[in-house]
Specification:
heterodimer, A: mainly alpha, Helix Hairpins, 2 domains, 0% strand, elongated, B: 961 residues, mainly alpha, two-stranded antiparallel sheet, two-stranded antiparallel ribbon, 37 helices, 3% strand
Chain lengths: 167, 961
């Protein structure tokens, strides 16, 4: 099928505007960008249906002249869903404003914290770094070095709690 | 057999309740469950020993061909008897081991009984996948039992270590089982063993399964989880980590050996690892000062021994392996239970603090001595019979490869020497008087063990003693399994205590003497062990691997997650441009010819839309920005209409209007201007990216259209739409019939979105309807009966401030509201044949509600729709969904349309299409969506402003920001 010039240009323009807004930190602009992207995508679907034609209603147009009904059905639900999602985003904007007086996509603090960690940082995983009572039983051959004292001739790779493990 | 498993399940579920009622005595009742299973198993001995087997099969997942296939043969019977018998005794023991006031007993009891059931299922399962399910269940319960209440770090770490290792092995095993199932063509263990098939797939599958067996049975190099698991209470150690769970790997090897022992790789892996494990475990057991850890390393050592025997794949060694398995279960659980009693009585398990306990607890000392003697392999105990049989088998034949047999035999003799040495060390440590310690030490016993407490270890020890002379009684069962393996010696030797003077007896004596010598020179041995101790171990390696993973994940997370949403989106878009974009530029067929436009008007509208979109980028005033975006929406609606899509145009117009209204509702709470937060440089980058993406998408649309060669699927829509769908509007028929499943999913999404909106706006309590004005507010004093009062055109507009009221709007609303509603119903009903339908109708009805709300305020909305939006949404989903079911009931597909035509008086010919009900559901959901949005973003925001609702949280309340 032969494409028109108008529709691709229009689609491209809407996508460009939508993406530009979507990359903003203001949630309102993100939402506007989302709406523009929605319109652009609906047009993209519509253009996939080929050139304009008659309404796809039996009795009004002949089947050969009809515009493709399938993309139309897809777009129809997409329009309504866009409304639902837009309302959801609006509610998010309102909540964000009400609770923290901001309507921006902030930086994720937790991500920042992880990124700030050095690769050599580690969680307390090595049993040798733990208090003796916290080490798993029988952890490795952490024998005391010779000369640690003779009181414990076999101070061993053993560290069980003295009392039975209760509670 | 299924009944027994269900009984365990029931007991596990009831256990917390029983413990709450009866305290620790509940264990005695719970012991009846594995006890009953034990009794049942015993009744089957005659049948199974006679060559029969008990089979049961209950269909479980027919699609996967997975049945609950259970099978009790000789091997399963031996293991089942151990699992249930020891299980019952351990539960009895629990009734005294725990104090009446211990916390978490109910949970513990439930887990222990559930474990017993899973273990029983494991040894009975005949289906490979069912075996895997039970296998992992035992892993999970072991994790829970080791971790206990989760209050102690060491226990948690031990539990997670056991879980990580055994689950990793279990997953490898799952893959292996699938491969074996593929290679042999059957998922039934009995059939796989009978006809295993061969090839690389089989070898790979076998090796993977062995990974599971090796991790579960704590073979080197995965042995370290077992000593660490000693964090668990002693009954758990006695049951899971001596008698039952760690035997699962042994069981699996024994189960598969008749079929797979000759697969290349089987013997080297099992014999090598088994031997290494036996020696490492024995060596380290000699070094322990904690009695429980001594036993744990002893268990590791003995598991290695067992793996060698059952993995050898010959009749003689398999028979010895089974006897040894029984013996080990008996003596090792006895020893653990003994340690539990010692711990309970003295408060310590450290052999450096115990002295002279034997004289004070003579019964316990006798019990412990019997078990330790069996472990060391002294006659006349069962341990001796098993070891003797193993030595004799290896000396005569046992392995086809004589060199291997010699190596293995040497290893076993050395390992048995170590075993004898640590057995002696155990007895000495627990009961003997020691120089340098006060006698007795500790001086006072905290508790004196009662008769019931000693019952379980005593019964097990006596069983081990009786098993020696009584070993011929085991012969029929053992032989029934062992005969499935090839016999290498000229004739099979029967089990017996005394075989006469033979080389094996000398080897036994040698190992005992060696053990005694090692024990006699224990001080120099300890010193030597200390000198050669190295810092590295498999355990260290495990923690180093985990740390390495941890560091790697920090590195990866820190590198890739910078916490900025624009950066993430930008990355995604760049990838889109880099990969599909490159393909588009280099490979895509560019359209050969272009048309300027469909109609000139299209170009005109397109220009308006583009200008509006461009303005939206730079406008800082919120409301204006929203309005220009609205202009693009209306423009798109016009393009829809021009393209030949009246339904879309209608829907788009209404939605655009609704969107504007909802925007305004929220924007009144926000500052007038959007604050600019981006540097010029960032804006340039965004602009470049946006233009590139826009160009890409436009080109994709054109190229896709130009390269289209196939006829659209929708060419065939018009005719069936009318014939089967009963409607002329093809788009509507597509929505409610042809692609009704899609629509059902999409309206569900609307329900979710509406609920989400309400959840975000209402800080607490999202359910319920719109608030209505009380009667006293509405009962205006000047209302004469019968006529609408002057100045009161709407039900609740009096609640508005006078300066906010508009009489014109009220009058218009009064006139139009019902008209619009009727129109919306018309759209719904006619939508099947003309533009309209559930979506458009629902949106129009929503517009009517918007009008009421705007004219009369939040109470007016409550009067207009005195119903909870949630109810409307739910009803809509119910109606739409039950239409689908209706299709089924009429004998058609889900959501298929039925056409009912009849002639009625007055109305004439009536044609009712069932998809109308589906469309009604859509209608209700759309109305519910609009109503919920109005209630949340309209009425609730009004209320918050009217009542100056501060966010005051009650203590402990959490509101997500």
């Amino acid at each position: 099928m032969t494409p028109t010039v108008v529709l691709p240009v229009l689609i491209g323009g809407l996508y460009a505007a939508g993406v530009y807004l979507l990359l903003d930190r203001s949630l309102t602009r993100v939402l506007l960008g989302f709406l523009l992207l929605g319109n652009a995508t609906n047009l993209l679907l519509l253009s996939a249906g080929g050139p304009s034609g008659g309404a796809p209603i039996v009795g009004i147009s002949e089947p050969e002249e009809m515009n493709d009904p399938l993309p139309q059905a897809l777009i129809l639900t997409a329009i309504v869903i866009t409304f639902g999602v837009a309302a959801f985003l609006l509610a998010m904007i309102h909540r964000s404003w009400r609770l923290v007086r901001e309507e921006v996509v902030g930086t994720d603090e937790e991500d920042r914290r992880v990124a700030a960690r050095k690769a050599t940082d580690r969680d307390e995983l090595d049993p040798d770094d733990l208090a003796p009572d916290d080490r798993p039983a029988a952890h490795a051959d952490s024998l005391h070095a010779p000369g640690d004292g003779d009181a414990e001739p076999l101070a061993d790779d053993v560290h069980l709690p003295r009392r039975r493990a209760r509670r | 057999m299924t009944f027994l498993l269900l009984l365990h399940l029931l007991a596990a579920v009831l256990a917390p309740v029983l413990v709450r009622w009866w305290g620790r005595q509940a264990f005695l009742v719970l012991a009846l469950v594995p006890g009953a299973a034990f009794g049942w198993v015993l009744t089957r001995i005659a049948e199974v020993a006679g060559g029969g087997e008990v089979r049961e099969s209950v269909p479980w997942i027919p699609v996967l061909d997975l049945d609950i296939a259970l099978r009790l043969d000789a091997l399963a019977l031996l293991f089942a008897a151990l699992v249930t018998g020891v299980g019952a005794l351990v539960l009895v023991y629990c009734a005294r081991y725990f104090e009446p006031d211990d916390d978490g007993l109910g949970r513990f009891a439930a887990q222990l009984v559930a474990f017993a059931g899973s273990m029983l299922g494991l040894v009975l399962a005949d289906d490979l996948l069912l075996l895997y399910v039970f296998w992992e269940l035992t892993t999970v319960f072991s994790f829970l039992l080791i971790g206990g209440s989760g209050g102690r770090l060491a226990a948690r770490r031990a539990a997670s270590q056991a879980l990580v290792l055994t689950t990793a092995g279990g997953l490898a095993m799952l893959v292996g089982l699938l491969l074996i199932g593929q290679a042999s063509g059957s998922y039934l263990l009995s059939e796989v063993v009978a006809d295993p098939g061969g090839g690389t797939v089989m070898v790979t599958g076998m090796l993977l399964v062995l990974v599971g067996a090796v991790t579960k049975s704590a073979m080197v190099p995965f042995h370290f989880w077992l000593p660490a698991a000693m964090e668990a209470p002693t009954p758990v150690s006695a049951y899971l980590h001596a008698a039952a769970m760690v035997k699962a790997g042994i069981y699996l090897a024994a189960r598969l050996a008749p079929g797979l022992a000759d697969v290349p790789g089987w013997r080297p892996v099992l014999l090598g690892l088994g031997l290494a494990t036996m020696l490492v475990g024995g060596y380290r057991a000699l070094r322990q000062t904690d009695l429980k850890l001594l036993l744990a390393f002893g268990t590791v050592s003995q598991l290695g021994f067992l793996m060698v025997l059952v993995g050898a794949g010959s009749r003689e060694l398999a028979a010895a392996g089974l006897v040894m398995t029984v013996a080990h279960a008996l003596f090792k659980s006895t020893l653990f239970l003994t340690v539990g009693v010692v711990d309970h009585a003295t408060g310590t398990r450290d052999l450096r603090r115990l002295s002279g306990l034997g004289r004070r607890l003579p019964v316990l000392a006798v019990v412990g001595t019997l078990a330790a003697a069996s472990m060391a392999g002294l006659p006349p105990l069962l341990g001796f019979v098993g070891k003797e049989a193993a030595f004799a088998a290896l000396w005569d034949a046992g392995l086809a490869d004589r060199t291997a047999a010699a190596v293995v035999l040497t290893g076993l003799v050395v390992g048995s020497g170590l075993t004898a040495a640590y057995s002696a060390r155990f007895l000495w440590g627990a009961f003997a008087r020691k120089p340098g310690l006060p006698d007795p030490a500790p001086s006072e016993l905290a508790h004196r063990p009662g008769a019931l407490f000693l019952t379980a270890p005593a019964v097990l020890a006596v069983a081990g003693l009786a098993g020696g002379p009584g070993s011929p009684l085991l012969e029929p069962l053992v032989a029934r399994y062992a005969d499935t393996l090839p016999l290498l010696a000229p004739e099979a030797e029967k089990l017996a205590l005394w075989h006469g003077w033979q080389p094996a007896l000398a080897l036994s004596a040698l190992s005992l003497l060696g053990g005694a010598a090692l024990f006699a020179v224990r001080t120099p041995v300890s010193a030597a062990q200390r000198r050669v101790a190295v810092g590295a171990s498999a355990d260290e390696g495990y923690w180093n691997v985990l740390q390495g993973l941890d560091r790697l994940s920090v590195l990866v997370t820190g590198t890739t997650q910078r916490g900025s949403l624009p950066a993430y989106l930008g990355t995604i878009l760049v990838v889109v441009l880099a990969l599909p974009g490159t393909v588009l530029l280099t490979r895509a067929p560019w359209p050969g010819e272009w048309r300027a436009w469909d109609t000139p008007v299209q170009a005109l509208v397109g220009a308006v839309v583009l200008i509006a979109a461009g303005l939206a980028l730079r406008i800082n005033q919120r409301l204006s920005a929203v309005l220009v975006v609205g202009v693009t929406g209306y423009g798109v609606a016009v393009i829809f209409a021009l393209q030949g899509a009246p339904d879309l145009a209608l829907t788009q117009f209404i939605v655009e209007t609704l969107t504007l209204v909802v925007f305004v509702l929220v924007l009144r709470k926000l500052p007038k201007d959007i604050s600019e937060r981006h540097l010029p440089r960032e804006r340039v980058v965004r602009g470049v990216l946006a233009l590139a993406v826009g160009g890409f998408m436009g080109a994709v649309g054109a190229v896709a259209l130009a390269s289209r060669t196939a006829a659209p699927v929708s060419v065939g829509f018009p005719e069936p739409a009318y014939d089967f769908g009963g409607g002329k509007n093809i788009v509507n028929v597509t929505l409610v019939d042809i692609r009704a499943w899609d629509t059902l999913g999409e309206i569900s999404l609307l329900v979710v979105a509406a609920t989400g909106v309400a959840s975000l706006v209402f800080l607490r309590g999202r359910t319920g309807g719109v608030e209505r004005a009380g009667g006293d507010v509405l009962a205006a004093p000047d209302a004469p009966g019968g006529r609408a009062p002057r100045g009161r055109w709407l039900a609740a507009s009096v609640t508005l401030d006078p300066e906010r009221r508009s009489v014109v709007l009220e009058v218009v609303t009064r006139i139009l509201f019902h008209t619009i509603l009727v129109f919306s119903l018309y759209l719904l009903f006619s939508g099947h044949n003309e533009p309209g339908g559930g979506f458009a109708g629902g949106l129009v009805a929503g517009l009517a509600l918007v009008l009421r709300y705007l004219a009369g305020g939040r109470y007016e909305l409550g009067e207009a729709a005195p119903i909870a939006p949630g109810l409307v949404l739910g009803a809509g989903l119910l109606v739409a969904g039950s239409t689908g079911v209706g299709g089924l009931l009429l004998g058609a597909e889900v959501l298929q349309t039925a056409i009912l035509e009849t002639t009625l008086p007055v109305l004439g010919d009536v044609k009712l299409v069932t998809s109308l009900f589906f469309d009604t559901g859509v209608y209700l959901i759309v109305v519910g969506l609009v109503l919920d949005v109005l209630r949340s973003l309209g009425a609730e925001l009004d209320r918050q402003e009217d009542e100056d609702d501060p966010i005051e949280l009650t203590p402990g309340e959490v509101v997500a920001r």
